[in-house]
Design a protein that fits this description.
294 residues; Rossmann fold; 13 helices; 8 strands; globular; binds adenosine-5'-triphosphate; binds magnesium ion; nucleotide-binding; Flagellar biosynthesis protein FlhG; ATP-binding; cell projection; YlxH/NBP35
């Protein structure tokens, strides 16, 4: 009797799993940004994407750092094509998606995206029409933005479902992260922002940095901001960068990899909110063009 019940339970679980797999995927757009440059956005984006993949999620990274290639260099994979090729040669978006390790998908920025801001509206519309084909194909699209708060980065931030602001415990990085928060929270659109404190020399230092930012944001901007996690300063990160391999692959059990895997699990455990997906991202992104003057 007990065995039979156990078997029924197993079959039920299997059925639930199968029906979940058949459901269309909702694609969530995550923008990763920072105030100060060089705080670890691209390394975070790439390894966070891999950590999500290892949790059975489908992920695409889109390198939207204007003018500077980041992700393909960190992966050591020279891209065959980038965004500009797509527009100039009228290619479908599937033709510019590159395959990275462990099933990771990426779209290379290169210098192509720099060009993009000077394109006519018609071409931009066509580009985004193509992006909408990714709806349901992946669970997450991660946008890795460039240093500083350009108009375009702000548009990516305001249109995303989730925003991750990366900072380090350095006072200059904290001040610049706060400047980003202030800039974003004074816009009409209030995205869902969380902090990641990178390069912490101790957990305590990470916690204190997060606390400082939380307090000033509460006091001066009247907003509550959450901390997604802390990543230690780990010499293996730089070693992996030099090898052009993500640290999660090159050093799977190093401190930074362990912290990042935990952080990705914590992210997936968050309650689902604000999930507008690609279509809402595109609508907001296009609308903000005239408002912010991109
Ligand atoms: N957790 C870490 N521990 C040690 N070093 C790190 C860590 N994270 C990043 N770094 C170092 O910081 C460098 C810059 O990282 P990364 O390129 O990811 O920053 P970024 O914010 O994307 O820079 P940019 O603003 O130029 O796009 C890396 O090459 C690495 O040497
Ligand atoms: Mg970068």
């Amino acid at each position: 009797m007990k065995d039979q019940a156990e078997q029924l339970r197993k079959q039920l679980l299997q059925l639930q799993q199968q029906s979940k797999e058949l459901e269309p995927r909702k694609t969530k757009v995550i923008t990763v940004c920072s105030g100060k440059g060089g705080v670890g956005k691209s390394n975070f984006s790439l390894n966070f994407a891999l950590a999500l993949l290892r949790q059975q999620k489908k992920v695409l990274i889109f390198d939207v750092d204007l003018g500077l290639a980041n992700i393909d260099v960190l992966l050591g994979i020279p891209p065959r094509r980038n965004m500009l090729h797509m527009i100039e040669q009228d290619l479908p978006i599937t033709d510019i998606i590159e395959e990275g390790p462990e099933g990771l998908k990426f779209i290379a920025g290169g210098s192509g995206f720099n060009h993009l801001i000077h394109l006519e509206q018609q071409k931009i519309d066509r580009l985004f029409e193509e992006l909408s084909h990714l709806h349901g194909q992946v669970d997450y699209i991660i946008l890795d933005t460039g240093a500083g708060l350009s108009n375009e980065s702000l548009r990516f931030i305001l249109a995303a479902d989730d925003v991750i602001v990366v900072t380090t415990p350095e006072p200059t990085a904290i001040t610049d992260a706060y400047a980003v928060l202030k800039m974003v929270y004074t816009q009409q659109q209030k995205p869902n922002i969380r902090l990641v404190i990178n390069r912490c020399s101790s957990h305590k230092e990470g916690r204190e940095t997060g606390q400082k930012l939380k307090l000033v944001t509460r006091r001066f901007l009247n907003q509550e901001i959450g901390v997604l996690g802390y990543i230690p300063d780990d010499p293996n990160v730089m070693k992996a960068v030099k090898k052009q391999k993500p640290f999660l692959i090159q050093f799977p059990s190093t401190d930074a990899s362990v912290a990042l895997s935990n952080l990705a699990r914590a992210y997936l455990d968050l309650p689902i909110e604000n999930q507008g997906g690609i279509k809402s991202f595109l609508t907001k992104f296009l609308k903000s063009r005239s408002k912010i003057g991109g």
